[in-house]
Amino acid sequence: MADTKQSASSDVLLGLEDVSVAYHGDITILDHVNIAARKGMVTGIIGPNGAGKSTALKTLYGFLKPTTGHIRYKGESLNGKPPYTFIERGIAFVPQNRSLFGDLSVEDNLRLGCWVFRSDNQRVQRVLDVAYSQFPILADKRNDPASSLSGGQQRFLELARALALEPEVVLLDEPTAMIAPKLSREIYDFIRELPSRGITVILVDQNVRQCAAVSDYLYVLELGRNKAEGGRDMFEGDSALHSLIEEWLEYKID
Ligand SMILES: Nc1ncnc2c1ncn2[C@@H]1O[C@H](COP(=O)(O)OP(=O)(O)OP(=O)(O)O)[C@@H](O)[C@H]1O
Ligand SMILES: [Mg+2]
Questions:
Q1: Ligand 1 pocket: which of 27, 55, 222, 226 to mutate (most atoms <8 Å of CB)?
Q2: 209 within some domain
Q3: Each residue of 104-144: pLDDT tens digit?
Q4: Same domain, residue pair 192 and 73
Q5: Among the atoms of ligand 1, which is closest to the Cα of residue 174?
Q6: Within-domain flag for 214
């Protein structure tokens, strides 16, 4: 499948180059993983439970340090840089586990997303206006505690808070897990539109069919290693990658 791989080139915005990551010093989780997210694209990462998908995203966000290889952003190695500098560079993250402050209001959660520019009232107001126009339900509930929102509404709030930083790239870990189908569709529609707003996306998802539907390029991880990868033409229609994904993940892509 080597001929289908993305070659290293300048339009790779963020990626892992030959990256290994270990927990507790010696338990290797990622084993020489390569991921390259191209500017203006949705890059999907799929794979079975425990494949290392969340670990890959946490590494791309600076939470975990590679033991080999490089985290590469716009050509620069970010190895050893503190996580807050990843945010400053325009990398946003919506983690797999819920990350809201449930006792705080919807608006205060959004304002926390504006923390680094909190004294710039105009910018904060612009971010709130954009969030409320994108997700009108958040405007209706702006004074309610975040914990009173439904699961899907909380996901909207987490997305809006991540986008408050006006990032260049957003990392999304299982954005529709445990979310009702109607709201899931809205979330996938929203993700699909992000590149047209200049935001590159890396999407980790167990919903292989949906991930394939919104991604321009897909990586399959298994047991902490790259298993396969390919562009849209490789996983749509009758292709080797399409059949392999179905076989490995025991999941049929429509
Ligand atoms: N904090 C940790 N300490 C030790 N091992 C961990 C830790 N977090 C994850 N792991 C292990 O690392 C491996 C990869 O976990 P990871 O969460 O990246 O997988 P995943 O592909 O996101 O799985 P899922 O689909 O279940 O979310 C698993 O074997 C997991 O048990
Ligand atoms: Mg995970």
A1: 55
A2: yes
A3: 999 999 999 998 889 999 999 999 999 999 999 999 999 99
A4: yes
A5: 27
A6: yes
Tell me: pLDDT of 253 over 60.
no
Residue 88, Cβ density class (10 Å: 0-12 exposed, 13-18 middle, ≥19 buried): exposed
Percent over 90 (pLDDT), the chain: 69
Tell whether 42 and 151 lie within a shared domain. Answer: no
The pTM (predicted TM-score) of the whole model is: 0.91
- The closest-lying atom of ligand 1 relative to the alpha carbon of residue 221 is 21
The two three-digit tokens of residue 87, written as one number: 């945010």
Is residue 103 within 8 A of residue 147, CB to CB? The reply is yes
Boundaries of domain holding 107:
99-166
- How many angstroms does the Cα of residue 92 sit away from the middle of ligand 1? 20
Q: Are both 185 and 242 inside the same structural domain? A: yes
Q: Could you identify the atom of ligand 1 that is nearest to the CA of residue 206?
A: 25
Question: 201 lies in a domain?
Answer: yes
Plot region of 21 (φ>0 → left; ψ -120 to 50 → alpha; else → beta)? beta
